[in-house]
């Protein structure tokens, strides 16, 4: 790959950017951006209307053969680069950039700013990026994260404010490449929809494309497949199923969210996984390791309220379809305890056995949080508690809170 990079800019840009500077930069760039992209950073189809039929034929030839062409980077947004091929305008998506052209992944950026990515896991939904969709690396959710201690972050920013700051720094980093020329592949040239996309990645072979189509046609959600671990990334594990790439997202690796996949598994290891999603639009396969294992390990749970009998059998994940006042009240009471930093509901389960009374089980400390299971009938609610109390202190607190609400 040819790329004329000289003096690559630093990625460790500060969090705080002067509003006036940002506004000035946006104003100075606005004229150029209006010509090519909409407010979301997408290339306007009108910019492609002047492409002739012979040009489309040439572009389609490039797309089918994988021949590389030289383009100029003429504009950018957090989503990628607007590029020019001769007089034709197209788009080079961020996910199609080579690694060394990319800004810091969101989790890495957040850690450098003193934030804890685990606090935002539920908001960082993945239609995966990079190999998966832009926002597995750059999440799109704008749900507010409440009651979270951000440590050394300058203020308790809402999640959408963090994303806005992240995208501003990312765009500033990408803008430093404007004007450079590089060789890329045409991955989509659609004259009907007026779409022209490029990629720095090599074109997939026809054999792999056909193999993926064949495999996805045979698979069903819920199937158990044998796969080989190929690569660890911060958002999960890349594997191959019959030679076809697939992704196991971080939260689908283990019931224990603190587990480091690179410690528990190794490159080349063969494992069984469950198919949880087949994305035919983007030709992607998503798997789960934890769904082929009992969940959660209940043998080490200790009764706080109720008898000492362990939970019978394995727990089946389910969707809570009713209100559980005892659990809600327990959570609210725990939040009022000074030493308790955070309390929130985790997963909901159905138990094979029945509990005749309200029971609470507590596991040992995992990372900075205790895992508590509240049980009644065949319903089991996971509750995560972050506290400075030791195990015995938390047990006493749970007993006290339960007495108040019962």
UniProtKB/TrEMBL annotation:
Where is this chain compositionally biased, Basic and acidic residues type?
23-37
* One Pfam family from the record: S1
- Mind telling me what this protein is named? S1 motif domain-containing protein
Q: Identify the stretch(es) annotated as Disordered.
A: 1-39
Report a single Gene Ontology molecular function: nucleic acid binding
Q: Where is the S1 motif domain?
A: 222-290
Q: Which InterPro entries match?
A: NA-bd_OB-fold, S1_domain
